């Protein structure tokens, strides 16, 4: 049976640089992002995003996020894999805990999460199970 953790995150730094431009088309960028989580998930995180910015202003992205902190009071760390889109001023993403990345009391962590962000602060939900 899974448990749901609710939190918010705040983006504390966003450094984005282009690494390729398709002539007359999309721009490819990489962003290094730091975040702080508050709530049932609390701690610090660093994300590396690879993004495709389309000419119509929308984007698609994937990312890998390292979270260090506490989940429902249990200390440890884990990695989230992101897949998402940016449209109409909103970033929407689904995430999954990468199997085998949980440490400390979060060893064996598995789960899926999601967020919808407009700006630097957003709600985050994670449905998870702790193995073992």
- The share of residues in helices is under 10%
In N-to-C order, the SSE pattern is: EEEEEEEE
User: How many runs of DSSP E, i.e. beta strands?
Assistant: 8
C-alpha geometry: elongated
CATH topology: AOC barrel-like
Beta-strand content bin: over 45%
Mean pLDDT over the residues: 95
The number of helices is 0
Number of domains: 1
Strand line-up in the sheet with most strands? 1-2-3-4-5-6-7-8
Going by CATH, the architecture would be: Beta Barrel
What does this 3D model show about the protein?
With 132 residues, the protein is mostly beta strands. It has a single domain (3-130), classed as AOC barrel-like. It is 0% helix and 75% strand. It is built from no helices and eight strands. It has an eight-stranded antiparallel β-barrel with strand order 1-2-3-4-5-6-7-8. The mean pLDDT is 95.
Short overview:
The protein is mostly beta strands.
Question: Which helices and strands appear, and what pairs or packs with what?
Answer:
Elements: E1 3-21, E2 27-39, E3 41-53, E4 59-71, E5 74-87, E6 90-97, E7 109-117, E8 121-130
